[in-house]
Write a structure and sequence with these properties.
The protein has one domain: Rossmann fold (3-Layer(aba) Sandwich), CATH 3.40.50.720. The chain is built from 4 helices and 5 strands; from the N terminus they run βαβαβαβαβ. Strands 3-2-1-4-5 form a 5-stranded parallel beta sheet, with helices on both faces. The longest helix is centred in the C-terminal third of the chain and has 24 residues.
Length: 157
């Protein structure tokens, strides 16, 4: 199946963009014309991806993001909006998993996974959407939101 979409003038914020699905989402959105903001803890990998996207004629920006830190989320979204404008597309792709057997997962392991995959995704979405909420009486803006997960592993029993 083949399709095309024009995302020119749109801004995409991609978490977990340093590898895997996040990097592929960023490349795809850039090829469709979106300016992409690459967000992850691994900034050097983001810089390499930015160079690849820019070599293809795309517009890419890098920001460091730790989704387990509300301060980091606030800073990354503010940086993105300062550099390229309001976020239109969110690919909430940051995620971690474990290869432990379920009975070996500690409370700390669980908290780290939950804080990254659930709490982090929620607060990234909330922060990126807050700029889209209209002031009282202002025209409504309909942002595009997309979500994905890189942690679709089964627990081993």
């Amino acid at each position: 199946m083949s399709y095309s979409i024009d995302l020119s003038g749109r801004v995409a914020f991609v978490t977990g963009a340093s590898s895997g699905l996040g990097a592929q989402f960023a490349r795809t959105l850039s090829r469709a014309g979106a300016a992409v903001v690459l967000a992850s803890r691994r900034v050097e990998k983001l810089k390499d991806l930015r160079a690849q996207i820019e070599a293809e004629g795309g517009d890419a920006h890098v920001t460091q993001l730790d989704v387990t830190s509300l301060a980091s989320i606030k800073s990354a979204v503010a940086h993105a909006e300062t550099e390229v404008g309001s976020i239109d597309i969110l690919v909430n792709n940051s995620g971690v998993s474990t290869t432990q057997r379920i009975q070996d997962v500690s409370e700390e392991d669980y908290d780290y996974i939950f804080d990254t995959n659930v709490k982090g995704a929620f607060f990234v979405a909330r922060r990126s959407a807050s700029a889209c909420w209209p002031a009282r009486g202002a025209p409504r803006r309909a942002p595009i939101r997309a979500a994905a997960s890189s942690t679709s592993r089964r627990w081993r029993a």
